[in-house]
Write a structure and sequence with these properties.
The structure is a homotetramer of 343-residue chains. With 343 residues, chain A is α/β, with parallel strands linked by helices. Chain A is built from 11 helices and 14 strands. In chain A, the strands form 2 sheets. An 8-stranded mixed sheet of chain A has the order 8-9-10-7-11-12-13-14, covered by helices on one side. In chain A, helix 5 links the parallel strand 5 and strand 6. In chain A, helix 1 packs across helix 10, helix 4 packs parallel to helix 5 and helix 6 crosses helix 9.
Chain lengths: 343, 343, 343, 343
């Protein structure tokens, strides 16, 4: 029996409360020992319920000898600084995606991870979706050379209602909420980064590196859509759609066509805790696996704990996180220039 | 602004922890003030987390003047006794289904509710599923006279894996677990009552009273299946399937065919917190509503609170609970005798 | 290379023109040499187009030495007489379902087939649906002992529009059409026989003999519905729905649940020429075969030709046809008496 | 009652036999009076069956005073010449898509149609698919401004098996088949033209003119895939996939996202004679119309006949045909240059 990894949660906002805390409570191999949040009220409320220490500055976390590793769930613009401090303080890090706000920041973290030898895992938890992993194995083993693909990530305007049904009550301070809303004021940039981090990580996981992309964007008030034409290093051609606030239900997925097979992956809104639905075709039949282990956040933190204890490369690792940031920036550049861009 | 109904939870076992407590935490119009469980460890663990009083006998609940209403979530065989005590103590009751273990017990509760004038709502929460309600309105307004129907309730052997992904960690005492497993030793009777209570309530909600039924049963080790031929008071003929431990995913639903329309309702495992998927056909098109308010347990307790405050008939009420118990017994009798039975 | 079986078509009405003639034109192993129909105009029109002989009485068919085998596609009430005459005249017979109008007639044909040693195949062509056959193999090899099932056969009121899109132009005499409509005046009996012949043959093919059934019927003007509770000789319990003129699209299918697997078969309206869609679950995955050979009428006549040439038992044979007629009669008796009936 | 339009069929190859002849036989408002094909055997076989005149050169068609209009179903490379001759001879023309092999040829036909005032309709029959038309109305009336879309047209390697099941027997001369196969030897060009003609016509019908496109192509032996990034004149951004010989079943469709609604159209292989399946979302519900009139080829020729008799613009007309050819050429140019191209 391995000792559980003693975790602190840095940042107790919405994603922390609805995703990471329930996952950590259920996960094997981890034990929550502290939380921190700039809002004392939030930190104390969250901590009291779990019987752990509450801090209002991350320095106290680094100073807490009990803490072996941290989950960084603070807003995107703090990922780089908090991950840097945690590594510098000798802690393993599971940092929410995107890894950083710029390629330069992400590269900086690659260097730091290499120097410290610590585990840094990026919170692109869809890699741990049982269905996405099934598709990954199917592509590697049965689909043959990949020729083409189409990926889509659409945030429908019914999502808030779904969140209201799925989310536990969230403790928040109105002031903090307002400040965060302001920080997301460059909504176009925010949406591309937050959604692109997922879709690009999934594309890379299933199809390998992206060689180049062409991108078009349209903005309409608060709504934004990006359409991309993508060529992979292995020679496949595909499309990627990122749309925020289309009417209706959210939808996320990818279809991949190879020489001997094809696979379609429909990812579910993660808080349904359902593994992606996979339709894998080869040899005259579609196979639809019935995958029941659907909590990707729990699977993610359990994978993190195993890597901390056993060593090896975390999934996704700091270089995967860097690659996603490169693709986010490449998309923005491709939109601005109209040209084909290599990330 | 109405004062929230001050609730106690009587029975803190699995269904209480995975369904009622999360619902109460989110619901509008209720406030949890106490919990009770025969296991002191369980009661204290649950209570500490919510900052409420912990009792180990229900008498203390009845004695707690703060408590206005209770949710009875103890094992089935205690429903009648605990509901009776709660009503006698002047408390409104939301009692898990089935209302009671026998028709006589259920009739007893009807009398008590009538005498006390208190609210007793039965925990057949599927009535509060947004999709089931949509179907109810569609049947009443668009489908025309009902001619035939087919209902099914199948517990697939993949359900434990799904529960493991969806459920929060459950606090339990091994001794209590063993005792409850023993109490469910008459598994055939237990399965018919626990699943039948749902399917019969849904059938009655959508189609009105059942006039008669014929039933066949097959048991195979731990697995059981019932097939029913049902005639409604309004003259429709239908079938009902209740199957426990068929291979694969769980499935629950009903198809109803009328003169001018037809509707199919696919209910989801409740802990996905998804409203039933409805396909409603009439006039040359199928309509599939996109219903986002999917937490039937939360909707149930909010409806209970509104009825406690505003009066009126709870849904489902004690007579609905009695009718479900009658249908459970009628099914058992029909299997034993081979004959057509009026409930 | 085997000589094609020289076929005559006896009865050139609608089913002959839309199903059998296109099938015979495409099928391997058969050659149409003559057609007969009481309407000379219809017989000549059909024959001219195919360059074959046209007769107006079946006696001329029996007298035509070129004819080796016949397809009997006349109205149901003539099946017995025409099949009897054909066998007596030494011809192999593919007779449309139902085999005969009564059990006595069907038994009579069993005796005649046994005495003559000729091939008589019943036109329950769904046995030759690639999807139904896939399901048959899956049940035999993977599903384990069958425990329960649900079958349905619903003729939706949108079927005429679908037929108008799918059917080729049909040559008919108005007088004959009126006479046939009058012969179907006992619409309740007609519907049970014509649809029951399909569903009972499929149930027996997949699940073996039926031991007993209970049935309820409701009629509403021209519309009729039957609900059955069925026990198989092997001990499975199931339901069968036969509904004529429910609103919406037609639907036909069966779900079968066994110890180690489950299968759902959705049969398509045959003139789509699509094999049934099959979902076969076992061992953690649903398999959906992509079956492209979807013309059951063509497959049926090719199977008939192979049996005529190579010998062996046709599928379905005269005893299968008798069993279907027994189940049709048993259903009518069960409705009339309210009792459980063994076919 | 309007006199039927007296039609000749010019070119009796596969598409003529499997699509146009069955459609003409059923369609209202047309009467087949002659056929022509370079192969006398094919022309006579087809003509004999329908009791019409058989010609082996199109000059005889132009000389036949009975002929009012022609369907040009010859190979693509003859479309321009035959349509030109037919118009010059004063005949209305329904010409298979693509209208012509080059933009110059197509422009030439635009001029000729304008000068003669005759009806020229292009055989992009998907415009007459009941589902595509439903989607067109939905987009115009309910979806709001179009923001983004994704279209796909994939020919799966299971298509030959499906064709074998759906197609009637085809009369052909081996020599002609070989010659045609050779003419399609530039398979890449052939595939883009034959499939692109459909998908571009559907895109324009639903979304209006295309302003520009970027395209990437990959070829693998006989297989080819094109991925396009498309901007419409109205400002929407979208993707178009054209893939030939991916594994599995064929798939064709388009999803369109607007301000107030979204629609998905799944077109079926046309020989199923099923209207496209449409999912139209707006105002909290998906509507799926049950469309039964599924023979697009029949609907196309009936529309042609109505236009010939009543005048007005045929759908699609010669300018639609020209636009599709422009888009096919623009795609080829975009692939060759890597640049964004305006058609």
């Amino acid at each position: 029996m391995v000792d559980p990894v003693r975790l602190a949660l840095v940042g107790c906002g919405r994603i922390a409360q609805v995703a990471h805390l329930p996952a950590v409570e259920k996960a094997e191999g981890v034990e929550l020992v502290a939380v921190s949040d700039p809002s004392g009220a939030v930190a104390r409320s969250v901590a009291r319920r779990r019987g752990v220490a509450a801090y209002t500055d991350q320095g106290s976390v680094w100073a807490d000898a009990l803490v072996e590793a941290v989950i960084v769930a603070a807003p995107d613009r703090f990922h780089h600084r908090l991950a840097t401090e945690a590594l510098a303080a000798g802690r393993h890090v599971l940092v929410e995606k995107p890894l950083a706000s710029t390629v330069a920041q992400a590269e900086d973290l690659v260097g730091l991870v290499d120097r410290t030898g610590l585990t840094l895992q990026v919170g692109a938890m869809k890699r741990h979706d049982q269905g996405v992993r099934y598709a990954g194995r199917f592509i590697a083993e049965r689909l043959g050379q990949v020729r083409s693909f189409n990926a889509w990530y659409r945030i429908g305007d019914l999502r808030p209602g779904i969140e209201a049904a799925l989310f536990p009550p969230v403790v928040a301070e109105p002031d903090v909420r307002r400040r965060e809303a302001a920080a997301k004021a460059d909504r176009r940039r925010y949406l591309l980064a937050t959604h692109g981090a997922h879709v690009f990580d999934t594309v890379r996981f299933l199809l390998g590196e992206v060689a180049s992309l062409v991108a078009r964007h349209r903005g309409h008030d608060r709504d934004h859509v990006w359409q991309l034409l993508v060529t992979t290093a292995a020679g496949a051609v595909g499309t990627v759609t990122i749309a925020a606030d289309v009417p209706g239900l959210p939808a996320e997925g990818i279809e991949v066509f190879g020489v001997t097979g094809a696979v379609r992956v429909d990812l579910h809104f993660p808080f349904y805790r359902r593994a992606a639905t996979v339709h894998a075709y080869t040899d005259g039949a579609v196979v639809v696996p019935t995958l029941t282990d659907g909590d990707a956040y729990q699977r993610q933190v359990e994978a993190f704990a195993r890597t901390v204890r056993a060593g090896g490369r975390p999934v996704p690792d700091v270089r995967d996180g860097l690659a996603a940031v490169r693709l986010i920036e490449a998309t923005a550049t491709a939109v601005d220039t109209g040209a084909e861009v290599a990330p």
